[in-house]
């Protein structure tokens, strides 16, 4: 699916800074093909709304009928001005879902109050949205004011934000994103309650005189990304980076619209991802001191991940210079023995050996480095790992986890799983080569490794992304001729390794 089709159901904004006009430009920036159904005509500038005129029910219905045969992957809903419109739109979504088994993401930006401050809706619209639309919505994106209207509580503190999101979730939406753009603190803290999971994104506050249309852009970006099969946490991260970029480029003029800056590619403008703590989220702190030691070989090149000292003994004579030992089932004695042998063997042969998971033993046995997954990252003593001079490699599966890992300045970051793999259940976490290419362009100041389903047949498509190191299990351990297979990888990676 190159350009998924996404429908925006929203109001027209004469200034084109918000509404259906901003939605279309945002959808285009995220490679989605926009379709439109207009709910209302408005006459407005970025600072004032002069008039709002709902479209009649008949033409609203006709517009929806005209798009109902399109294979939509997403719907973004913005301004709805009358209770009858809510009923028509809710009916349309129900019918569409009955008609097709394909996934259809519905994102609602509950425009309950224009940023210019006027009342845009007829009486009863809010109640109709709550009772008829919210049960059909996958993601709702209220700002603090809208969350207050929906819950009766202004969720200023992080824990209040969690409680408010849970209250809104009980009204029907699968996921609730409370935006911190109206925070008074020095940073904006966005909170996503995605199903049962909690995500926090923090960005420095940018003082701009006109933030008209940020909500429209944010929700349209999310709809486009969900339609492109992005998990919601990654869609939030990218949508926030998009808003941050737009605000950073804003002209200091109250009349100028915020720009539509294209797919986010500047890491400096990405939000910081915080660990999934329920209350009072705190950033993962960089360990004090010089941080994690750099890897000696850059790039890492061919990086086999193996489950025994025997494999290490077989691979060292083949000039493999980076290895990982990944022991999932060994008891404590066997674990210690295997790790001790592996570390000694690799040290003798100047091979960089990473220990998967067992960071305490890795420190105790003075290993070269450790590789940690996201869960382990939150539990491990990162300062102890850095103090001991060990390298740290971190697994990431998408933009949210990348931002979490990036703030720690690890020795390398792994991106996976690129393809389906039999070695580990990675369902729901496949990245593909298009996303891998974006990661390579985004993360410039940290060595990168791709992992998951990489083999001799798809290696060229992986390397075409610009990645210079690949971690593999079965491509090596299940090869009929291991020596020949290692040579294939080494020769293709040749010239990339130094
Ligand atoms: C280089 C590399 N990348 C990713 C992984 C996966 O590690 P993790 O997320 O800790 O999962 P398990 O390997 O423990 O199942 C890796 N091992 N190596
Ligand atoms: C450990 C791991 N982490 C992400 S994918 C993966 C398995 C990679 O194995 P293979 O190279 O056989 O696909
Ligand atoms: Mg692990």
UniProtKB/TrEMBL annotation:
GO biological process: thiamine biosynthetic process; thiamine diphosphate biosynthetic process
Catalytic activity, reaction form: 4-methyl-5-(2-phosphooxyethyl)-thiazole + 4-amino-2-methyl-5-(diphosphooxymethyl)pyrimidine + H(+) = thiamine phosphate + diphosphate; 2-[(2R,5Z)-2-carboxy-4-methylthiazol-5(2H)-ylidene]ethyl phosphate + 4-amino-2-methyl-5-(diphosphooxymethyl)pyrimidine + 2 H(+) = thiamine phosphate + CO2 + diphosphate; 2-(2-carboxy-4-methylthiazol-5-yl)ethyl phosphate + 4-amino-2-methyl-5-(diphosphooxymethyl)pyrimidine + 2 H(+) = thiamine phosphate + CO2 + diphosphate
Binding-site residues, 4-amino-2-methyl-5-(diphosphooxymethyl)pyrimidine: 324-328, 356, 395, 424
PANTHER family: HYDROXYMETHYLPYRIMIDINE_PHOSPHOMETHYLPYRIMIDINE KINASE THI20-RELATED (PTHR20858:SF17), PHOSPHOMETHYLPYRIMIDINE KINASE (PTHR20858)
Annotated pathway: Cofactor biosynthesis; thiamine diphosphate biosynthesis; thiamine phosphate from 4-amino-2-methyl-5-diphosphomethylpyrimidine and 4-methyl-5-(2-phosphoethyl)-thiazole: step 1/1
Family: Belongs to the thiamine-phosphate synthase family.
Alphabetized InterPro entries for the sequence: Aldolase_TIM, HMP/HMP-P_kinase_dom, PM/HMP-P_kinase-1, Ribokinase-like, ThiamineP_synth_sf, ThiamineP_synth_TenI, TMP_synthase
Reported cofactor(s): Mg(2+)
Role description: Condenses 4-methyl-5-(beta-hydroxyethyl)thiazole monophosphate (THZ-P) and 2-methyl-4-amino-5-hydroxymethyl pyrimidine pyrophosphate (HMP-PP) to form thiamine monophosphate (TMP).
Family matches, as Gene3D superfamilies: 3.40.1190.20, Aldolase class I (3.20.20.70)
Enzyme class: transferase
Gene it is expressed from: thiD
Binding site for 2-[(2R,5Z)-2-carboxy-4-methylthiazol-5(2H)-ylidene]ethyl phosphate: 421-423, 453, 473-474
Domain of life the protein comes from: Bacteria
Keywords assigned: ATP-binding, Kinase, Magnesium, Metal-binding, Multifunctional enzyme, Nucleotide-binding, Thiamine biosynthesis, Transferase
Domain Pyridoxamine kinase/Phosphomethylpyrimidine kinase: 13-248
Protein name according to UniProt: Thiamine-phosphate synthase
């Amino acid at each position: 699916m190159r350009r998924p089709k996404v429908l925006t159901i929203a109001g027209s904004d004469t200034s084109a800074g918000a509404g259906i006009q901003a939605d279309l430009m945002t959808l285009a920036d995220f490679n989605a093909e926009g379709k439109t159904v207009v709910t209302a005509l408005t006459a407005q500038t970025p600072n004032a709304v002069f008039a709002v005129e709902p479209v009649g029910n008949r033409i609203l219905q006709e517009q929806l009928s005209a798009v109902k045969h399109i294979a939509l992957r997403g719907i973004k809903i913005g301004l709805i001005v009358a209770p009858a419109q809510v009923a028509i739109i809710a009916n349309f979504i129900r019918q569409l879902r009955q008609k097709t088994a394909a996934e259809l993401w519905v994102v609602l930006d509950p425009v309950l109050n224009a940023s210019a401050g006027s009342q845009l809706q007829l009486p009863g619209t809010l109640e109709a949205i709550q009772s008829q639309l919210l049960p059909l919505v996958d993601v709702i994106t209220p700002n603090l004011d809208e969350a207050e209207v929906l819950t009766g509580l202004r969720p200023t503190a992080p824990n209040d934000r969690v409680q408010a999101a849970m209250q809104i979730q009980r009204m029907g939406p699968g996921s609730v994103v409370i935006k911190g753009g109206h925070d008074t603190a020095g940073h904006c803290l966005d909170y996503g309650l995605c199903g049962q999971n909690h995500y926090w994104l923090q960005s420095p506050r940018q003082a701009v005189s006109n933030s008209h249309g940020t909500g429209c852009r944010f929700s349209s970006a999310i709809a486009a990304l969900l339609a492109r099969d992005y998990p919601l946490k990654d869609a939030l991260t990218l949508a926030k980076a998009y808003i941050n970029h737009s605000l950073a480029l804003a002209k200091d003029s109250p009349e100028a619209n915020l720009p539509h800056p294209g797919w986010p590619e500047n890491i400096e403008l990405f939000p910081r991802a915080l660990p999934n703590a329920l209350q009072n989220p705190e950033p993962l702190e960089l360990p004090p001191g010089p941080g994690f030691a750099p890897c000696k070989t850059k790039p890492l090149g061919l990086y086999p991940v193996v489950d025994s000292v025997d494999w290490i003994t077989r691979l060292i004579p083949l000039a493999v210079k980076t290895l990982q030992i990944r022991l999932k089932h060994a008891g404590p004695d066997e674990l210690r023995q295997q790790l001790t042998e592996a570390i000694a063997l690799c040290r003798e042969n100047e091979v960089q050996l990473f220990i998967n998971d067992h960071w305490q033993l890795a420190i105790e046995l003075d290993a070269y480095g450790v590789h940690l997954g996201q869960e382990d990252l939150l539990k491990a003593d990162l300062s102890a790992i850095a103090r001991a001079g060990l390298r740290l490699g971190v697994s990431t599966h998408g933009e949210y986890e990348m931002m979490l890992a990036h703030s720690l300045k690890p020795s390398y970051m792994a991106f996976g799983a690129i393809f389906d793999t039999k070695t580990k259940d990675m369902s729901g976490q496949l990245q593909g080569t298009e996303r891998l290419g974006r990661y390579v362009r985004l993360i410039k100041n940290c060595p990168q490794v791709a992992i998951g389903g990489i083999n001799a047949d798809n290696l060229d498509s992986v390397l075409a992304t610009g990645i210079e190191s690949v971690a593999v299990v079965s491509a090596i351990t299940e090869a009929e001729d291991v020596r020949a297979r290692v040579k294939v990888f080494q020769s293709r990676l040749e010239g990339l390794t130094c």
